[in-house]
């Protein structure tokens, strides 16, 4: 099978294609911010915060500088600090655990579910101690974990739930936005995300007005008004340019989400019996497929990547080292036996190209090359 646009290949993500599809709206939004010189916070940030809160079906959105800050500020807002423990999953980007340490707490990892690659909800309770303050479930690759038992555990033990939705803009659980199932939910708008800015940006959303107010103060130097500060905060504000861009993109997010889901199901169909394991999806969720991640035996993954590259197909690995085994957490002394599913998955997972602008022909070409190389 010949590659569509073979001379260019198929990138892992194509941000230029997305920009071209909405260029007039984006250019007008950027021009409006420059014309008004509303570069830090201001009316464009406020407009996006209001729109994104409505989209998440919660009362409040606080824009911040990036997704890592959103997690850190959420934890601090909920009173997490030195001496506390926060439970999270063993397979995520380091920002999840990094934010816990930034807040001064100790990170406690839980192994993953072998099918969904999300946190194994049956292993959470055994990690709860008197020092546990919160749980951070990660909606990894755009699929929510099973949130009902997590919420039940949190209620039983008096814990807070902070959702890490950096990869899950628009995801649903039991037909509702995932922000309904956490005290605070945090988003990254890094350019490659399903809802991505043209630089770093992030937000946290909540139904609790007091938490939203506290988070906003913390993100703005602990400020109540100009040069009046109730406490020492941090400098983490959403700038006007990114907010205006995000407001434009938010209007297209549902369409892009359905295109991603269409492509995921095309992959599923085309890869059936193709020598790799396709993603598992819970029945009661709408996964938004920030990434489309297959599994292939570790002894064959490198060769598969190289063969796909030779055929013009870019791939990624998210993530090649499970969090407990990073050098940053070597002091915790974890062994492979502590998180066997996460350790195994880190050697087998492979992310294929996934974005709304992928055509059916491109998806089927990628699948055909995967099946050919995996045979």
What is the gist of this entry?
The chain is α/β, with parallel strands linked by helices and 375 residues long. The chain is built from 12 helices and 14 strands. A hairpin with a 2-residue loop joins β10 and β11.
What does this protein structure show overall?
With 375 residues, the protein is α/β, with parallel strands linked by helices. Helices cover 38% and strands 14% of the residues. The protein has twelve helices and 14 strands. The chain has helices at residues 15-21, 23-36, 42-56, 67-77, 94-102, 147-157, 209-219, 240-250, 253-271, 298-310, 340-346, 360-374; strands at residues 60-64, 85-89, 106-110, 132-136, 160-164, 172-173, 176-177, 184-188, 202-206, 223-225, 228-229, 285-286, 292-295, 349-352. The strands form four sheets. A seven-stranded mixed beta sheet has the order 1-9-8-5-4-2-3, sandwiched between helices. Strands 7-6-12 form a three-stranded antiparallel beta sheet, with no helix packed on it. The chain has a two-stranded antiparallel ribbon with strand order 10-11. Strand 6 and strand 7 form a beta hairpin. Helix 9 runs parallel beside helix 12 (360-374) and helix 10 (298-310) crosses helix 12. The longest helix is centred in the last third of the chain and has 19 residues, at 253-271. The two termini are 16 Å apart.
């Amino acid at each position: 099978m010949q590659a569509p646009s073979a001379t260019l290949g198929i990138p892992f993500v194509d941000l230029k294609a997305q920009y071209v599809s909405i260029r007039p709206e984006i250019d007008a939004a950027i021009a409006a911010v420059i014309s008004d010189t509303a570069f830090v916070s201001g009316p464009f940030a406020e407009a996006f915060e209001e729109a994104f809160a409505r989209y998440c079906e919660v009362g409040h959105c606080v824009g911040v500088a990036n997704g890592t800050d959103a997690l850190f500020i959420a934890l601090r807002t909920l009173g997490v600090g030195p001496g506390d423990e926060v439970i999270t999953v063993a397979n995520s980007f380091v920002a999840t655990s990094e934010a816990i340490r930034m807040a001064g707490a100790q990170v406690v990892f839980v192994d993953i579910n072998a099918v969904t690659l999300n946190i194994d909800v049956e292993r959470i309770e055994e990690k709860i101690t008197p020092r546990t303050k919160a749980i951070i479930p990660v909606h990894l690759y755009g699929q929510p974990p099973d949130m009902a038992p997590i919420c039940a555990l949190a209620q039983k033990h008096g814990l807070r739930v902070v959702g890490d939705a950096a990869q899950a803009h628009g995801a649903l659980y039991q037909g509702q936005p995932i922000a309904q199932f956490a005290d605070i939910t945090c988003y990254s708008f890094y350019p490659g995300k399903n809802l991505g800015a043209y630089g770093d940006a992030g937000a946290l959303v909540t139904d609790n007005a007091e938490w939203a107010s506290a988070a906003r103060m913390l993100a703005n130097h602990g400020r109540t008004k100009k040069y009046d500060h109730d406490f020492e905060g941090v400098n983490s504000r959403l700038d006007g340019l990114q907010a205006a861009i995000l407001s434009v993109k938010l209007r297209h997010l549902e369409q892009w989400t359905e295109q991603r889901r269409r492509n995921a199901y095309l992959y599923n169909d085309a890869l059936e019996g193709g020598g790799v394991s396709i993603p598992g999806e819970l029945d009661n969720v709408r996964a938004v497929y920030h990434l489309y991640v297959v599994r292939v035996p570790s002894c064959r993954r490198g060769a598969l990547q190289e063969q796909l590259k030779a055929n013009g197909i870019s791939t990624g690995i998210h993530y090649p080292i499970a969090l407990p085994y990073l050098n940053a957490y070597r002091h915790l002394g974890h062994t492979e036996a502590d998180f066997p599913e996460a350790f195994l998955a880190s050697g087998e997972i492979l992310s294929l190209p996934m974005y709304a602008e992928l055509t059916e022909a491109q998806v089927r070409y990628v699948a055909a090359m995967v099946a050919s190389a995996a045979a």
